[in-house]
Design a protein that fits this description.
Helix content is 26%, strand content 10%. By secondary structure, it is of the alpha+beta class. It has a three-stranded mixed beta sheet. Strand 1, helix 2 and strand 2 form a beta-alpha-beta unit. The longest helix is centred in the middle third of the chain and has 17 residues.
Amino acid sequence: MGAARAIMERGYTVDDMFVTGCDGGSEAFQEILDPENPFVASYVQPFEAFAHELCEVIDQIQNEGIAPGAPGSMVPASKVIYVPGTIVDETSCPPVGSNINSLFDYYDPNAGPEAWYNAGTPYTTK
């Protein structure tokens, strides 16, 4: 988003160049939806999903005794965990007030408060 702002400050427009990034959330979505802004798309990975995955891995290792790389482990032998994201552009920005997790395959709009992404106050777009 910073690069897009710098482009605009120098007098260039989205017609001259465009920027993509890995920012997510309300501010990024507002910029993506601004037709004058050269920030046109972003790869979004929610922090909530990272935190949830990490807690599940800790539970596996500490409580279940499943070592990284062992059969059934969430952590592969490479010891690298990837949390999938999604590309958001002007056609896929979530509507204002939407749960940010609605962008991802794991989201169920009918899930109640027991779903980890609805714990506390879900992060919603502004």
